[in-house]
């Protein structure tokens, strides 16, 4: 589990094929002290497992599924990446709960400077936009951000100077793609409301799901 608060930057120092997947060597801007083989590291938002560690470098294997879902399919040597190691139970959650399981990608549609902030509009598929609400949370390349506005096929976020300087979002240009993880709470709520095929059923009932009538009956709404 991660918070979406980027620990530092890294760059791709090596790419090699591994069957239908890839193995990446990533060099970070900070020492990987207290990090060991098998630890989870969010790399531009994707939860990956460190399989080799050497000073500021670590290696990760990327499966075919992850390649299809993320921007790593177009990974390039020297590409800059956001790095966050897994949170500890003693840590403050300064961003929001981020699983590191990428839902898909989006494309930078527009950048607009407003006072000391940069408003970035991201074009996404409707299947991702459905889980977004204004003032809700989204992880973009692993960065915990607050959604300003959202439409059927896009959303916008406001980037303060610190975030622009500390993460890759500061030099993402129009047309570039980013990894998107929507807030997991929305997906759970949808699942509960629509029913859970194959899941457990209430005793004596042919179906077990939450609908408007159930919420009224149980006193959650009038």
Characterize the structure shown:
With 222 residues, the chain is mainly beta. The chain has three domains: 8-85, Elongation Factor Tu (Ef-tu), domain 3; 104-182, Elongation Factor Tu (Ef-tu), domain 3; 188-217, no CATH class. The chain has five helices and twelve strands. It has helices spanning 64-69, 126-129, 161-166, 184-194, 212-217; strands at 8-18, 21-28, 40-43, 46-54, 57-62, 80-85, 104-114, 117-123, 137-140, 143-150, 154-159, 177-182. The strands form two sheets. Strands 1-2-5-4-3-6 form a six-stranded antiparallel barrel. The protein has a six-stranded antiparallel barrel with strand order 7-8-11-10-9-12. It starts with 7 loop residues before the first strand and ends in a 5-residue tail after the last helix. Residues 198-205 have low confidence and may be disordered.
Short description:
By secondary structure, this protein is mainly beta.
């Amino acid at each position: 589990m991660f918070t979406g608060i980027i620990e530092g930057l890294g760059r791709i120092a090596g790419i090699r094929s591994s069957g239908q997947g890839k193995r990446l060597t990533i060099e970070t801007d900070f020492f990987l002290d207290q990090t060991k083989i098998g630890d989870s590291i969010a790399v531009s938002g994707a939860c990956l497992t460190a399989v080799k560690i050497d000073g500021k470098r670590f290696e990760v294997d990327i499966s075919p599924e992850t390649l299809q879902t993320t921007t790593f399919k177009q990974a390039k040597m020297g590409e800059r990446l956001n790095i966050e190691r897994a949170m500890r139970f003693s840590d403050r959650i300064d961003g929001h709960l981020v699983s590191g399981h990428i839902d898909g990608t989006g494309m930078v549609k527009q950048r607009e400077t407003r006072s000391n902030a940069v408003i970035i509009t991201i074009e996404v598929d409707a299947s991702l936009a459905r889980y977004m609400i204004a003032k809700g949370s989204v992880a973009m390349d692993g960065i915990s951000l607050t959604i300003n506005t959202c439409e059927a096929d896009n959303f916008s976020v406001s980037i303060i100077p610190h975030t622009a300087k500390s993460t890759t979002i500061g030099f993402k240009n129009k047309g570039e793609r980013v990894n998107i993880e929507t807030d997991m709470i929305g997906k759970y709520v949808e699942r509960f409301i629509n029913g859970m095929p194959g899941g457990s059923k209430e005793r004596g009932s042919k179906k077990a799901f939450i609908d408007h009538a159930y919420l009224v009956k149980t006193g959650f709404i009038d």
